[in-house]
Amino acid sequence: MSGQAAGGVGIQRGILGASLTGLAVLVVLAAQAGSNRTAIAGVIGAFAGIALYHASFGFTSAWRRIVTERRGAGLRAQMILIAATALVSFPLIAFGSDIGISARGFILPFGVSAAFGAALFGAGMQLGSGCGSGTLYTAGGGSSRMMVTLAAFIAGSVIATAHLHHWRGLPSLAPTSLIKTMGAGGGLL
Questions:
Q1: What value, to the nearest 5°, has the Cα angle with vertex 46 and ends 178 and 99?
Q2: 131 with 50, same domain?
Q3: 51 and 24 in a common domain
Q4: Is residue 176 a contact partner of residue 108, using CB atoms and an 8 Å limit?
Q5: Do 31 and 119 belong together in one domain?
Q6: Is residue 180 domain-shared with residue 98, that is, in the same domain?
Q7: Structural domain boundaries enclosing 159
Q8: Model-level pTM greater than 0.70?
Q9: Engineered SS bond to 187: which of 56, 61, 144, 178, CB 3.0-4.6 Å?
Q10: Number of domains in the chain
Q11: Which residues are CB-contacts of 113 (< 8 A; sequence separation ≥ 6)?
Q12: How many other C-beta atoms are found inside a 10 Å radius of the C-beta of residue 142?
C-alpha cells in the first residue's frame, strides 16, 4: 500500500518530501537566528495547514457558496474560527503578562494604503479565481494558470514592500486597539 492513503488516494511523495524539507529548513534557520518561538510557530502553522487542507477548508469558496448557492455552512465555520481565535487571543493579549506570557497584537492604522491594497487584492482574487491561500492550494495541485497568478501575487507583494515608505506616508486613521480601549471582554463584544 505504498503511496496510497487509506481512501485510495495516492500520496505525492515528491511534494510531501519538499514540503517537509522546506519546513525543516525554516525551523532550523529560525532556531539558529535565536528565535525558538518563530520555529515553534512554524511547526504549529504547518500542522494547522495540514488540518485545514485535509478538511478541505477554504475561505474563498465559502463566500462564493453563500452568494451563488445561499449555503452558509462554510461561512459559519469561518466565523466560529474567528470567534475561537478571539476568545483565546484577546485575554492573552490583555492579561498574558500577569501569567508570564508576553503576548501582543500588531495594531496598525487604517488608511488610504490599506483601502487601496484591499481593492487591489479583491480585484486580483477575482481575476485569479482565488485568494492567496487558494492560489497556493491550486498551484500545488499543478495548475499552470495558478502558477502565473502566484508569480503576480509575489511580484506585487515585493513591489509594495519596496515602496513601503510611500504607503506608510499616506493619510490614515490613528491605530486603535479594542482591547486597550474596551478591555478584553468589551473587545470581544
A1: 45
A2: no
A3: yes
A4: no
A5: no
A6: yes
A7: 110-173
A8: no
A9: 178
A10: 3
A11: 167, 168, 170, 172
A12: 10
